[in-house]
Specification:
Shape: flat
Number of helices: 16
Structural class: alpha+beta
CATH architecture of the largest domain: 2-Layer Sandwich
Number of strands: 55
CATH topology of the largest domain: Phosphorylase Kinase, domain 1
CATH class of the largest domain: Alpha Beta
Distance between the termini: 79 Å
Strand order of the largest sheet: 3-9-10-8-5-4
Strand content: 25-35%
CATH superfamily of the largest domain: Phosphorylase Kinase, domain 1
Largest sheet: 6 strands, mixed
Length: about 900
């Protein structure tokens, strides 16, 4: 009784136990399911196995394994035989049980396969082990309905949906079926040969036929059961003399993809009953690309690529007869290849979504890339072809391979015509770039561009390494639009002529590799060309370099500016430039120390910015000129200083470019005007100035604190509030007040109340001063903020300008630690509160340890009324207790 499930949905339900009063025999009282399968095997082990399987049925979609009397089978026909088994097709009169509308019913006159196991009566254990291999769910594509026994031979029979008669094939098909987990997976099947009608030969090994039932499929992810695509035209690929090597058959079948969207689909395996040859049953697309090259290695390669074509939008590689090409015209050659343009009459295959089949794009313009003497090395040909992707989004598509019947050179048939440079290394580099294009979205198509493509060539700049020209490119660059590549004719471009570059192709290619591959980059490399007179190679760029139309005559500075421009990948990045000094008007000195002089100025052209798809200039821009004294003596130091600036336009300090004073020779860092908001002051101590600048250069968020050098004369109402051996603390009013960002620009919070933490003798150790300053947070929303550093002109002591301080480091650290742990709107903001904040102080109690007072705290505590509040407010004139 313990064997029975307690689930009411079980196939066998045990209601209870009873006893016959006459015989004393005990009785198991079940539901009526046992009488639905009212036959039992006379073999106890088989009966027990079947009962055990039935007792495990807990779901309506479980298969009900049964003992099936042999007389239930009609139309028994042998379909296959070997030493171990004989396979028959048959009609099972009653048919299998299935669950519908609350009851079990039978699917009458069900076509089944009978797998008769020779001499199986001699080993019941082997029979049962064989039966255990089969799944128990109806949704499986291979089912064991039951077991039977041949009345004449005594051989036991497994009653199945299907069987090939070969255990290895059955196992392989079942393995593939069990791996199905998506609606568009192929259901691989064993297909009886009598399913095929109108069989006709189309090649030595290939047949076309109509498959009566057709393949199983689901239209969408929502379909629960598979339907059949009846009377389906299929290709039969006969594998001659493979009947004795099932392993070879299965290895061949494993090459096929499992998705319906694949170009070559394997629906199933069959067998010719007359010859015994196995057959791979495929979709008919293979016969659309039905030409073969007569070279086995090439044919195998093409088939291998076709078998990897897994999506309707992937390109289909083919062997293309040479007579398919018309209007053949040479467009370029070098020592290894000759390139022709041509029209392919049939054109490439593509999947037509409306017709739901493959069709051809007739009279397609293609490029024929003749590989000279390639017939001598088929492996080199295939290695070259392997470099091309079949993905739909690639720029350079390999449609197929062909062969010139006169020269016997093999040909790669490509999607886009290509100019070549006559230099093998350059051609390889350009091809490598093109082959990496696998996305239409904004990727630059690098090309070799003949020099005669350029009109209106005008010099715009020069140094010892390069000359820069503007020009009009007649054909213009390729770009993807409405499903195909077209050209943007008469495009204004920049020609960057690299002097004597023909002497080092590696240097040329390394220079080209620096450019980004996205059209949205500031500097885009469209291609490479060559000046026909000088032999110098030319990098053909977008016109952005001529927007920044000056180049430094110092090679290191030019290289640094170029490197920064090449890294621009975002419309919001700053475009660093070389800016001629004569661009500046209204130059006024605002600060100076022994290392630098700071001036304000108006930059006539102004910086570049991206606006509605193009770069424009912000004319007459107010800027800061940071003149680095004697910087011409160390260009490396100049570049290191420039490298510290962020490229983000939201940074507090932005470096627009580099310039040079023509009188002194000093180099100049041209910055945004925020520098002149900084009280136009510098500390005259290089380490402090470097520390402050370093902090300012890291600002890339409007919420960051702008650390400043603050002249002592900025402070009014200075009052000492506490003192010890190391520090004196003062309260003060900072006249200008700290900088904060409002509505996109920095303004000052005037007459700000601050605390001045004066560090005694700090002028003796700048390192200690900076270490102390580094402890403070950089965000405005912190409760303790370091606004800047100052210096008492009388004592020389340096001062940290803070929101607050107790004057005791341990107390300050404790308060700050508590403040840093605030993570909820209703957390208390613990503070240092100056004693002069309290009014109406009255004693309310006292003992030996403490005195308690009531008082009014004028400012009152910080609070947020709700989780939605962004800023803290004060609860003014708050009554508090002072302990």
């Amino acid at each position: 009784a313990k064997k029975y499930s307690t689930d009411k949905d079980a196939y066998h339900v045990l209601y209870g136990i009873s006893q016959n009063p006459d015989t004393g025999d005990y009785i198991l009282v079940q539901n009526n399911s046992v009488n639905l399968t009212n036959q039992i095997s006379k073999n106890e082990k088989i009966y027990s196995f079947i009962q055990e399987r039935q007792l495990k049925i807990n779901y309506h979609d479980d298969v009900v394994l049964e003992w099936i009397p042999y007389n239930q089978f009609n139309e028994v026909k042998e379909t296959g035989k070997n030493d171990l088994i004989t396979v028959y097709s048959a009609i099972w009169k009653d048919g299998p049980l299935y669950y519908q509308y609350g009851n079990y019913k039978r699917n009458s006159n069900k076509e089944v396969s009978l797998k008769c196991l020779h001499n199986s009566q001699e080993s019941i254990e082997c029979l049962i082990n064989e039966a255990k291999n089969y799944p128990t769910k109806y949704k499986a594509f291979q089912l064991l309905y039951g077991m039977s026994q041949h009345p004449d031979s005594g051989d036991y029979i497994l009653v199945l949906i299907w069987t090939s008669g070969n255990e290895e094939i059955d196992n392989y098909i079942q393995e593939r079926q069990l791996n199905i987990n998506k609606y568009d997976d192929i259901v691989l099947e064993w297909i009886p040969y009598n399913q095929f009608n109108i069989v006709r030969e189309i090649g030595k090994n290939d047949l076309i036929a109509i498959w009566n039932d057709g393949p199983l499929y689901k239209k969408s992810i929502w379909d629960k059961i598979h339907a059949r695509d009846s009377d389906k035209e299929v290709a039969l690929k006969c594998l001659y003399n493979i009947k004795n090597s099932v392993v070879s058959l299965i290895n061949e079948a494993r090459k096929y993809p499992s998705k319906y969207k694949a170009f070559q689909v394997l629906y199933g395996i069959s067998q010719n009953p007359d010859t015994g040859d196995y057959i791979l049953v495929q979709n008919n697309s293979t016969n659309l690309a039905n030409q073969i090259s007569k070279n086995e290695t090439i044919d195998n390669f093409i088939q291998e690529v076709q078998l990897k074509t897994n999506d309707y939008e992937d390109k289909v590689l083919e062997w293309i007869p040479y007579n398919q090409f018309i209007e053949i015209k040479e467009i370029g050659r070098n020592g290894l290849i000759t390139v022709y343009s041509s029209i392919w009459k049939d054109g490439p295959l593509f999947y037509n979504e409306l017709c739901k089949n493959y069709t051809r794009n007739l009279n397609k313009k293609v490029a024929l890339k003749h590989l000279n003497n390639s017939q001598k090395s088929i492996n080199s040909l295939i290695n070259e072809a392997t470099r091309y992707l079949t993905d739909k989004d690639v720029f350079q598509v390999l449609y197929g391979i062909s062969q010139n019947p006169d020269t016997e050179d093999f040909i790669l048939v490509l999607s886009n015509y290509i100019w070549i440079s006559k230099n093998e290394k350059i051609d390889d580099f350009i091809q490598e770039w093109q082959l990496k294009i696998d996305d239409y979205d904004g990727i630059v198509v690098l090309e070799w561009i003949p020099y005669n493509q350029f009109n209106e060539v005008k010099e715009t700049g020069k140094n010892e390494l390069i000359t820069v020209y503007s020009a009009i490119w007649k054909d213009g660059p390729l770009h993807y639009q409405y499903g195909e590549y077209t050209r943007n004719s008469n495009k204004e471009v920049t020609l960057k002529c690299l002097h004597n570059s023909q002497e080092s192709i590696e240097c040329l290619i390394n220079e080209a590799k620096k450019y980004p591959i996205k059209y949205e980059a500031f500097q885009v490399l469209y291609g490479i060309s060559q000046n026909s007179d000088t032999g110098d190679y030319i990098l053909v760029q977008n016109n952005s370099i001529n927007l920044a139309n000056q180049i430094s005559k110092n090679v290191k500075i030019y290289d640094f500016i170029l490197e920064r421009q090449l890294k621009i990948n975002d419309d919001y990045d700053i475009v660093l430039e070389w800016i001629p000094y004569n661009q500046f008007n209204e130059i006024i000195e605002t600060g100076k120390n022994e290392f630098i002089t700071i001036c304000s100025a108006i930059w006539k052209d102004g910086p570049l910015h991206y606006h509605y798809g193009e770069y424009k200039r912000n004319l007459n821009k107010k800027v800061t000129l940071k003149c680095l004294h004697n910087s011409q003596e160390s260009i490396n130091t100049l570049i290191k200083k420039a490298e510290r600036y962020l490229a983000d336009k939201n940074a507090f300090q932005v470096l627009y470019g580099i310039s040079q004073n023509p009188d002194t020779g000093d180099y100049i860092l041209v910055q945004n005007d925020n520098t002149n908001l900084l009280s136009c002051q510098i500390s005259r101590n290089e380490k402090i100035d470097d520390f402050i600048q370093e902090r300012q250069l890291k600002i890339n968020d409007y919420d960051d604190i702008v650390l400043e050098w603050i002249p002592y004369s900025q402070f009014n109402e200075i009052k000492e509030t506490s003192k010890n051996d190391l520090i004196t603390v003062y309260s003060a009013i900072w006249k200008d007040g700290p900088l904060h960002n409002q509505y996109g620009e920095y303004t000052r919070n005037s007459n700000k109340k601050v605390n001045l933490k004066c560090l005694h003798y700090s002028q003796e150790s700048i390192y200690s001063l900076i270490t102390e300053a580094k402890k403070y947070p950089t965000k405005h929303n912190a409760f303790q903020v370091l606004y800047g550093i100052s210096q008492n002109p009388d004592t020389g002591d340096y001062i940290l300008v803070l929101i607050w301080t107790s004057g005791n480091e341990k107390i300050d650290n404790f308060i700050q630690e508590r403040q840093l742990k605030i993570n909820d709107h209703d957390d208390i903001v613990f503070e240092w509160i100056p004693y002069n904040q309290f009014n109406e102080i009255k004693k309310t109690g006292q003992n030996g340890l403490i005195t308690v007072y009531s008082a009014i705290w004028m400012d009152g505590p910080l609070c947020k009324m709700s989780i939605w509040d962004k800023n803290y407010a004060r609860d003014f004139n708050k009554e508090v207790a002072l302990k």
